[in-house]
User: Fold these one by one.
Assistant:
Number 1:
Amino acid sequence: MSDRVVWVILVVIGLALLSASALSVLMTSGPVAQLGGSGMREVPRDGVIVEEVSLLQGNQLDRDSYNKIEVSLKTSSSIYNGPYTVCIETNRGNFCETTYVTTTGTTVTFTVGGGGQEATVEVRVHAAAS
Amino acid sequence: MNIRLLPLFLFLLTLIALSGFLYSVTIPASPMPLTSPTFSLNSANGFYARSARLFLSGTDVTYVQVIVYNDLTSDRTATVTVQIYDWNGNLISGGSVTSGVPGQSIATVTVTLSPPVPYSSVGTVVVDVG
């Protein structure tokens, strides 16, 4: 096999790999999440609505400390009802729970390390169909 | 180019396309964030932001209910400000209200958003009490 042919083969392989990578990036981006598990399904960003985030000490709101973070979610349509893995990223670590979310709403309680409330508490919520 | 190399090219292209396809299918199978609004609860001057709840009218978030705790024994007036940022970090809506809060008690304060914003565009909800 001549050098020219080898060179052409390498170029073809490189271009094919490049296009495959670009395709995979395109398929993993955007507001629509394509989710794994049994029966792949797609849910738009507003398919699950995070309604409320609360900080609780035990079951009390009237405190200056907290050891639980409560997150309320609901689906925007019954077609999105189903089991979801709900995760939070917070000042006190990251936590996940699996729960069934419906249009009527679901509350998930995460037990976190106790202590006085920080000047800024950030709670980032993720929900992914499981 | 030698015509005898054509089957080799076809075989290589098929192999590469197949691996690219498998790669693009495998990546989205891992859990991806479906909804990821961030709630940022900021507290100051002995007032604590304990809860934030979004209220929707249709697909728009129209107001936010905030539960404020006054850590001091005296009755005081709290200023509650809500700011909504989109996914690119741009301020897209907000509102502010003052409300009396009894000593060592909570008060529920409603902040109307101007303008209402689609839930799907809400990236971060910032609540300031003080």
Number 2:
Amino acid sequence: MQFDSMAAFISMGGHGRYIWTAYGLTFAVLAWNLLAPWLAQRSFLADEARRLRREEPGEGET
Amino acid sequence: MQADGMVRPSLTRALGAQLRRDLLLVFRHPQDVVNPLAFLVMVTTLFPLAVTPEPSRLAEIAPGVIWVGALLATLLSLDNLFRGDADDGSLELLLLAPHALYFLVLGRALAHWLTVALPLAVCAPLLGYLLSLAPAAMGALFLALLIGTPILSLVGAIGAALLAGVQRGGVLLFLLVLPLFVPVLVFGAGAVSAAQQGLDYSGQLAILGALLALAVTLSPFATGAALRITLS
Amino acid sequence: MWNWLHKLGSPPWFYRMTGNWLPWIGAAAALLLGVGVTWGLLFAPQDYQQGHTVRIMYIHVPAAILAQSAYMMLAGAGIVVLVWRVRLADMFAEACAPVGASMTLVALFTGSIWGKPTWGTYWEWDARLTSVLILLFLYVGMIALRAAIREAEAAARACAILAVVGMVNIPIIKYSVEWWNTLHQPASFSVTEKPAMPPEMWLPLLPCLFGLYLFFFYVVLQRTRTTALRRERRKQWARAEICRQLEVPGAV
């Protein structure tokens, strides 16, 4: 391991704020990339549920 | 008269007719020529006001300012390249014509260049003078714009064709096409800057020429395909 | 063989297959990224010039590579749309654009942050960063075009054309930006062009890069699945799938 202590790890030789901001931003973007499609899928299913409730009962054809 | 009884004019006559029509349209709407020019002059005037009227510094930014102004002016006028025809149905006729869409599109871009971009290139040295551009660079400015502006017309036509069916085209055309103009800008403005420093600029012009050759060969295919999509 | 290719373009088949693969892709991505980032942050050596800031490379370089790869994939899918009219390819392309754009943003941000302690400034008009910025503009244009055209078939082919035109232009743009850069910065210090990096330094890049690729596919395939469901929702297979998912709300 390149670091002696947790404090040394966080400070990264004085460059801590650059490195952690960079990694933080990256993970935020990756998290958004995971979240956005999941939310889109959920909202699509909710729309479909509404549509099916409107259209399906009593309707036999496409 | 052909075997199937159809009368098919030659390609040259078709292109001539199209060119005549486009020129006539511009003649009847002179604002299509004057507006982009006025825009270029006004934009050029903004820079001394915004930056500094000091000649040496103006001369330094002059190539870039004129080139960007010409780019924006061309883009503004491209927006309507196909939209009017898409709206009134002439676009369908263009696609139904017995001639290859490739050449008709090329003819349309040529008309646009002749009526819009060429005047910009001609007026550019005057604007260069306003911005204290070195006299040695005037020739380079005119030549670079002469070779570069057809590329703008041709590549911009692709964007115009893609958006001909979209009513709120506007800024979207800029977004689509500006990244594609970067090489023309880099070499075009680079040529003028080099000339201003007394360096040889034939290399830049040669590359512009190569880009023009590429644009003439390839872009009408994309424009034609885009037109077909607009009408689908 | 044509049979297999045909299946490849079939949305229900795609949906079923990705349903099986995705958990594995996701797990592998998480594993590789976890290993790569831990390795890069904790075990890789620091650079004798840049100190620990070189660790930003482990996210910057993969993001930049992916940003460009994603556009190539987008263009490839566009060709498939134009030549073979496979609608699934367009769904894939639609999913690629925002994810690719976000990778470009990561590359720009991390590149910029890396620049501050290294060059002393948050932005440097060097060839790499400038090219990536223009790539971002290409993505923005693509997303904007898709949003502007309402009809799905027309939007698919328009975006495909734009992608192909963009792909042809990218080498030209890169060359022109590099030429422009050499003119104005004769002695530029480019952070990624350094004397041979020791393996201890570049090895962690590999799991990070592959992990990010797998992450990219995971996200893009998820988006493509939802798009496929949405566009085909009137069809039998989609209706069956939707009903199945609505019955068991937690299943995605």
Number 3:
Amino acid sequence: MIKTRFTPLLSIAALTVLTIPLLAHHSGAMFEKEKTITVEGVVKRFEYTNPHSWLQVDVKNQDGSVTTWGFEAEGPSTLQRAGIRPSDFMPGTKLKITGHPMKDGSPAAAWVEAIRADGKRFDPREGFKVK
Amino acid sequence: MTNSTKTARIAAIFLAFATLLSACNKAGTAPAASSGAPEPERTKEQMIELGRQHKTAWELYQSLREKTKDGQRLASSNLPDWSGVYTRAPVPGFSFDPDQPPDGLPTAKLTPEFHAKMLKRIEDAKRGIEWDPISTCSPPGHPRWLTEPFLREFIVTPKQTWLINEMVNDIRRIYTDGRDHLPEADRYPLYDGDSIGFWDGQKLVIHTNQLQAGIYQRSQPDYTDQVETVEIWQKVDDKTLRADVWVYDPPALQEPWFTRQSYVKLDDREKTLRIRYWNCGENENNAVYQTKEGATQFRGFTFTKNKNKQGESR
């Protein structure tokens, strides 16, 4: 269960979405596939690694404290194919990001879509499309 | 020149022309069974039936080889062009058989024991109980190798062909230099097995044995360490490599499982595609374990303070 102290900056929606499971390495069963969570914050770190990448985002809570959230996506080659490069998310980049949250309430999610402050959208699953 | 000489010369020219014409006609109507001549495309149903006609993968492979008079070895100048970076043509759910209906079951004719195991896996996954054996960073192994959705390269040389999947730097080496498999007593289980092959025109025919047990993919059946495959790889158009695959696995399959796999060449006009070294263990945030219930859970994250699991603020 995600603590309510995040609610001013974070929204949770229950919806049915068709998602491609994270596949490289582990099952995606630890994520709530039927729900999404959206937070706004700034990039702390982008771990552009195999088999999964992690975009770490600092999110300010209602009480002024900060929680670092992690958003998991596929590895570098799939992100490259999705048009997502390390330089797109340098530390300090402002963004709004949506993902499928962890079932156990950890501040982590499977990355669905990120929208930067300049309006550009990034969907890691685009990397599986054949172009 | 006498009239008789002239007549003899005209007759000789006519005979030579007729012989040439006859030779051309014969070349154009060479029997389909001869190596290199175009054969009519076999349907999937015909390929399934071809698999049923052979008791083992080795028997099928031998019959294909006999048809080409023990197979061909290609010189460098005759090798097909399989260059480029490819990926598997998208398949819903990454099913082993691309023709599996989106909401249906895998198309394999499984033995009752393996059918029950597969149904349990699918039902467990619906309840969030799912564990993938490659979560430990081991390679997918063949035949699962065929299903992974990442970048691929195919390196063709006269004596070996390398089928490369970028995931965990996974290379299948297909020996086409005429060698045989290891003697049965010396075989031991391998992730990608031992593969030998021959060329039938521009088609690469492969037999693989010495494999480990595994799963075809999540929500797909298991295979045993008795699994063997026969594959026929060929380029069917400028952008598509196709592999016709028969899987034989008597403990798990009631009959050979035939599938038709496709790999699509990616557009790389901007030369941005790269296959890099894939270190599965480079980021500890990706480490997972199997819970008592059989589900998958992260070990913990570097970005949470004191292994914070409840989103507590710092």
